[in-house]
Design a protein that fits this description.
By secondary structure, this protein is α+β, with helices and mostly antiparallel strands. The protein has 11 helices and 19 strands. It has 3 domains: 82 residues, Phosphorylase Kinase, domain 1 (2-Layer Sandwich); 176 residues, Transferase(Phosphotransferase) domain 1 (Transferase(Phosphotransferase), domain 1, Orthogonal Bundle), CATH 1.10.510.10; 145 residues, Jelly Rolls. A hairpin with a 7-residue loop joins strand 1 and strand 2. The protein is globular. The relative contact order is 0.08.
Length: 519
Amino acid sequence: MLRRELPPTSASTDHVGWDTTLDRWVRVRTIDAADPRAAEFLDAGRRAATLSDPRLPRVLDAGTDLHETASGERRAVAFVVEEAVQGWSMGDLLREGTLTPAAVRGLVGEAATALDAAARRGLHHTRLTPESVVLGPDAVVRVLGTGVEAALQEDPPAVSPARAAALANRADAVGLVALTYAGLSGRWPRVDDLPGAPGLPEAPTAGGRWDPPVPLKELRPDAPNDLDTLCSVTFGPHEDGPREPAELALQLAPWSLDDLGDALHRMRGELATAEVRGRLSNRDEVVPEEEPPVPFTRPRSTGRPQQEDSRFVLALVGGVVLLGLVLAMWQLRGLSPDDEPSTPPAATSPTATATTSAPPPAPAPPPPPAPAPLPVASVTAVDPLGDGEEGTAPERVTDGDPATAWDSERYDTPDFGGLKDGVGVLLDLGAEVDVTSVQLTASGEGGTVELRTATGGEDPLAGSTVVAQAPAGGEQTLAPAEPVRTRWLLLWFTQAPTTDGENRVSLGEVQVQGTPAAP
């Protein structure tokens, strides 16, 4: 359900929408289905859905649909649905003033690392602006539009795929250097094939309009020498500088986001306030039912007590005094010589007295149950970064026979041919338990497997947490540092072992050790 249109920052028309299935806010990018770029736009969106880097917003859906315009006309559109990203863009930060060199290194370095992860999957941005880089309240820097922005490029060059990838990598590297220049100077450099940056003035040039921008130090005298040199050689006439985002990330390292701490604090406060105001403004106003009027009762004066109250208080005090006198006389009578016993009681030793009066020791708590094999309710093969299916018969890993195995598909390389970041199996333990270790038996040598706590949703990898790691081949024990309480365990293979000369996972047996969760 589309709620409002966003200001134009892309060749697509963007809206904020509410996904009634996922019950969350989303960003919807649309272009006319008749646009020649629609097919490439949808293909880029679907391929971007395979990216799992937290710095790249997840693509949730892509397809075509009929959309009703403001004039009531219905037309076919191609759409890509992304998760909505909260936070301040680099453009928002620059509207408050230029940034420190450390903050610029952190923002651009994180963006370069995200684009490097996308480039390894054949996806690029090529249209970076300060609005493309967003600092979230969780202190994670995200890059918006990776993949789909490159697909919306007008008249892409007719070159080979390898040459196109090299040009896209260079375009992203130049865009990242432009972000560095803008972050320190507050000006956007005008360079061939670089989009404009709404809200930022253009950087002055040394000569004509199409000459390179002036050196960074002319606008920011305290700019670090390495960043000034980086901008000068990148925007210079010889097309030097980094050729891809990974190269720029190495030049910027090390970095941190510590200098953005104040901005993060203010952002979190503003977002929390806006969320509360949104809930209050959308809340249904509850009108209380009318109640019958309460009869008016004149309050009593707090000055002098009434006569009946005074008499009652005096009678109460007298009764207490009389009871005290009776108790005192009874105690004195008990201490009189006439009432003393004729023979003294037998002496009691201090040891006996102490033994008799000491409270009994508290019983020791029962020892915790020792870890034991836990039953597994069901096993499911997991391939969220591929077609959703991986291998056959995953239930074999808990049949008690190591000779029967769940085999993944075969891949050209141990990193799954560069097609995905991993495959795995999801174990449902039926109820929450305290897991102490997982023993597995697999064929082959090498590879890497992670033990993750997960959820039982459609994508158990999302939100899962790594608690142990080991080689993927042979007999292995994955033991968390402390017992973990969970119902779902994900065995996630990030590198396939070599099995019979092939790159595949052959998992023969899995046994979970632990104890039932304490109430």
